[in-house]
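Lecture 7, part B: from sequences to assemblies.

Below are the input chains for today's worked example.
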Amino acid sequence: MLSTIVINEVSKSFGKKLVLNQINLTVESGQIYGLIGPSGSGKTTLVKIIVGMDSPNQGNVQVLNTVVPNLKLLQKIGYMAQADALYSDLTGEENLSFFASLFKLKKDVQKERIAYAADLVNLTADLKKKVQNYSGGMKRRLSLAVALIQDPDVLILDEPTVGIDPELRQSIWAELFRLKKTGKTILVTTHVMDEAEKCDRLSMVRDGEIITSGSPAELKNQYGITSLEEVFLKAGGKQQ
Amino acid sequence: MRILALVKRIFHQMLRDKRALALMMVAPLLVLTLLNYLLSGNTVDPRLGVIKADDNLVERLKDNDITVLQVEENTKDLLLDKDLDGVLQFDGENISLTLTNDQPNAAKALQVKVQQAIAAEKAKEQAATLSAFMESIQSKLPGIPVKMEQVKAPEINTSYLYGNKDTIFFDQLSPILVGFFVFFFVFLISGIALLRERTTGTLERLLATPILRRDIVFGYLMGYGLFAVVQTIIVVTYAVKVLDITLVGSFWNVVIINLTLALVALSLGILLSAFANSEFQMMQFIPIAIIPQVFFAGIFPFESMAGWMQILAKCMPMYYGGNALVEVMYKGSGLSEITNDLLVLLGFALVFIVLNVVALKKYRKI
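Predicted structure of the full complex, as structure tokens:
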């Protein structure tokens, strides 16, 4: 199996505060990889470094065998930030078509992709509405649609299902599984344990360090317990 | 083209934001109109109280557009009661002038008029005395009577290099204001637009796509630049056609200058937005980066500034913009006379643009 994302000894500090401490992580091609941890644990910083929006103080990141940051690489990465970065004075469709043009999609491909992405996140009926009239969940869904717009090989989703109702969350995960089957690699951050259960592999992050990694089943076996929540508490528990 | 996608988006946003559009297109017209009427209003004749003044002098004062009132005494209450600008009191050889001085400019003008009137009256008296003296000498002297010419005040023919006798302060001020409004509103709108992209995270999202940093800067310059073109044409057309502001030179040269100014304002606005965290912080740049510009744009004469102020003036884009606009609109200069100003302005823009591209490294290193 090919490694899609390779993180090598990455450390990052803001001022004196160490946010990421010597992170090593490998995401194999075609996996759904979960980064799980409480807020403030450094997940978002790590995700930003993978996309190239932030640079590590030490170490390096390779995505698809290319050292980050790289402009051509960005064409192949679908990124969904934690905060909805949308133009609220534009309609959903205008947002999608703006980002589609930034990825230089041809007119007909653009139309197709917009229809596909909107349908996936259940926004087809609301495409003509201005984003400022969207609910929180709708904005989240539109952000996901933007991340999918150029049909990227790698998806990096920072808390994709926050504020989305359970039903839609199910359908988004169903779509992530479908995307995985078409060979895409997906990195998801979450702090919801039942989502972590759905990942092929997991890394638990706390205070800028990866405290444990493995498939959900492996982790549960390793600690001899049945729920990931307990694994997290046990693995992350402060050593006495 | 990614730049075009950005331009198209800015168009969508601007056309939907009716208030920002109105601020850019209509607000300058409103302010210009107000200033036009304020500065071209008629001056009110000063009111002067006189005590024991000679009738001839009173007549002369009246000829000089002074409203003269005979008063009894020179007291503060009287000055205020009768709404006088001053009292002129004669006491034998002594003349005293009391000025209200609530508006120093008007008081100075009144003082000069009074002094002139008194001097003229004195000169007339002396001339009369002199000719009486000559006549008495002539009558006593036998022989050829010499004809005395009456002394006449010399008449001065005034001609003007720029403007004419009806030129008012606003004619010289308006070119500067036309440029300043374009500068100010373009700065504000483009700066706040990019700031909003920073605070909502869309700028970061934008940089997570393969767009080049310089493409973002150029996209902004083009998108808002096109609105600046429309704004410039509206403002200049309105100033010249409706307000009848003096325009001696070419309309298109004015447009060129204003567009160059807009380019500087745009690049400065988006650059300063990098140092602001909110719209309010963006507004805080106005008294620091924008208001001083207007002082150095030619409202106060450059020659009378202190040395260090002159150096400061030369660091201000509006100094060059104001200068070029006065050259074209008021003095009728052509493109060759303003080339230097335009080049300096383009230099400013270039520096700001490069700094913008560098400043975006904060978000993405490449």
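Note for the exam: The two ends of chain B are 19 Å apart (CA to CA). Keep this in mind when comparing with the next example.
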